[in-house]
Known about the structure:
There is one protein chain. Helix content is about 80%, strand content about 0%. The chain starts with 5 loop residues before the first helix and ends in a 20-residue tail after the last helix. It is mainly alpha-helical. Helix 2 (about 45-75) runs antiparallel to helix 8. About 25% of the residues are buried. Mean pLDDT is about 75; it is low at about 185-190 and about 295-325.
Amino acid sequence: MAFPSEAEGIVWCSIFTLASALIVIGNLLTIILFTANKRLRKKSLVLVINMAVADLMLGAVSLPLYIYLVGISDYQLWTETLDLNVPFLIADILATKASLISATFISCERFYAIYWPFKHRTLTTRTYYIVIFIVWTLALLNTCIFQMSSLRKLFPYILLSLGSTSAIIICGCNIAIWRKFQLQGIVAGLQHQNRDLQNKRLTKILLFVSVLALLCWLPYIIVTSLILLLDSNFMMSWRCLVIIDFVNYANAFVNPAVYTLRIPQFRQALSRCCLVKRAVVNSENSATGQGDEASSRAPISLITLQTEPGRDLQPLKNEEIMETKV
């Protein structure tokens, strides 16, 4: 198998570094908007934010460690070696599995909301927190199994089982909801109709997110299956492996873009945030302008006060510290 050149290694590390930055910025913005805006604090979006937390962990911890390790092992870009394999595997397994399991539960939650809407409205926030606890417990269980040497040989099969189960559940929920939309019309009063339309729109968006997660995981699941079935007879170029890794990580920065572009509440919250920021900047600029006008008259009085007979006129030097806010 041909190994990559140093130039190709630099290109791929740069691409993964950009992806890591986009993942952190997008998911951090999603979490901030959710916590700061009351209109976004809905039960149906709690699992979305949990998925954003898992993706943020992936972009902030797992992906930088991945870049460092492949830069040493595959591209030979640097020589200083730290034993970061175990921290990387723990962070990567925990974050990626939590993200995949969250996408699976999002599909199940939408299935329940469409087929039993009245029961779904009675669900409490505590129920969603229990689901989040289950998500991270399952992800942590996968991590612990990998760390146990006696069970490590079973981990690929467990990973394949988890991926296959998630794929079946996501596809099944999507097909069932699509059939429900096709067979059932909306006939109710205006208030109930608007509620159903919003529920239907949110369902389509969240199902799209879960399908994206599945598509990003499918290449990884397929390759893992081939490795298990063919063992040493399976060969694949390093470029294909890197592309599969990139596609697997790509889902983490695609999700925030989907939330912002497709969920109206996120767009409105982001617009209000930008407007408030612009108003703050304008008020600071106007205050700075008044301060500059006052400071332009101040040195004259200072010079006059500090000028004594027989002493040369020496103006005071004023230093301005400009603060920029991104």
